[in-house]
Amino acid sequence: MFSIIKSNSASRITEIREYIEFIDPLIPKPPVTTPRFLNSAKGLVFVQLYGVIEYTVLTTISKTINLINSAAVTLNDVKPIILSLALNSELEAIYGAPKKKWDKRHELFKIFEINPFVEISEDILPTDGKNIHYPQLESIWKIFCLTDPIFHDVTFRGRLQDIVSNRVNIAHGNQAASEVGSRVTTNDLSIRLDDVSKFCSYFITVFEEYIEKEKFKK
User: Fold this and answer.
1) Same domain, yes or no, for 80 and 169?
2) Which of 61, 71, 110, 119 is 20 to 30 A distant from 43 in Cα terms?
3) From CA 193, how far away is CA 10, in angstroms rounded?
4) Alpha-carbon 17 to chain mean position
């Protein structure tokens, strides 16, 4: 069910690993100063690391929603919190039309009499829209009613924050890529890559099991 996502995520991991292996022999040994362009190359790995995390999360959630929709379940079949996804457009309509709130409320609750099949928009990501780190993952876990640990290893929470912070600093111009890269070695980056690989595999597995065991049902 998630084989394409697994393959694409693994391919991105391999691409980053090849990049690190390419620049590693170019970096001089101390006390020779590392050229700025090589520090920049190291810094940009944080952008790549975040990219594979975001790809894995977004595509896995989209696929999960697609499979829930394909399960032919009605509103009454799913856990109550899943309704926040299934009725997203109706809930947004109430928020966006305060002068017609009672009409919108009537429309919303009338749906339960009809009890239609669940049809969730596949581009929904139940977060605040910010970069993906612990608060966003926690929100995803709550909305999908997951009971598994959020991380395969609790230490990855700090690792993820480190990756997100460095990625944001580079992308927003707060720090040059060379400045970020000067603080890490290629070995440091390889360790981070291994951690990201394990997290991505774990994340996909959690949702794969979620679908297999139909954990979205009451």
Assistant:
1) no
2) 61
3) 11
4) 20
